[in-house]
Input
Amino acid sequence: MFAANGDSPPSTFLIITIFAQTNIDEALPPAVAANFLMARTLGIEHQTKLSPRVLRLCHLYPSNSPSASVLRHDPEVALLENNHSVEVVLHLHADKLEAVAHLPLKLAVFDMDSTLINQEVIDELARSIGVTPSVAAITERAMAGELDFEESLKARVKLLKGVEADVWTDLKESITFAEGAPLLCRALARIGVKMAVLSGGFIPMADWAKGELGLDHAHANHLVSAPPSPHHPYPHLTGDLHPTHPIITAAAKRSLLLSYCETYKVPLAQTLCVGDGANDLDMLKEVGEGGGWGIAFKAKKKVQEMAPQKLNSESLVDLMFLFGYRESEIGEMTKDSRYLRG
Output
């Protein structure tokens, strides 16, 4: 499946971004990368070391070859990753000048819980009334794709009855952003990318994340709250989802993604989509099949297996390497000294 047909005229370029944990030359000697890849494409057109641990290769690619999302599941890619402790992200692009420089990106959509932030908000809500084990067990199964998301959400929300309605103030003090999330959003804003968070969580935190990260849009689920009652003598959550607001399911995320592509006149090929749960797969696959970047980032095992591409980097800002930005350029865009090396 990986082998190239030498008689097929090249119609595009295969961009291969290889991430090492520390030094790319030590993890993957250049000769190994060249020998491995030259046998499967029509030749190395360009290569760039974007940072001491990230190498980017641009290859002529036969027109009748598999898509990037199919190609990344090839056993020999997994063998290269496992033998050299690297990760490989693949992308196809037709324009040579862009392929060897900065790839065009106009829209980025993100999941929130365990993607832009480190926590699952619903589990944090459960902790406030001591029902964490019950809620967390359902969350884990739902995010792994073992349960229907909408039904599991309703079941978990029912367990939140009695949570104080102003719990969001305390949560904003304890929720932490994922490593690199603020830097990534800062860099994307610098190059004019429109950004949205599409969350199966809850709107108070999604709106908060939107404001903190400088995003353009936020969508999430709405909970019903009630005034004090004899059983709950304080404003509290009722354990219900608001009936007049749509539930943000996997299908809803995909629909919202496509609506923003239409609103901003952005093709899927110039779109980045990042998520970690089973309810993100629809939008990840939509973007990947459309020629964009559907990235399962530090995702659940099933999601990594099924997503168009995956990356398990320590920092979200590493996604900027996929578009051809050097470490020094990322440093200039983010004003972060960790990325201001050559």
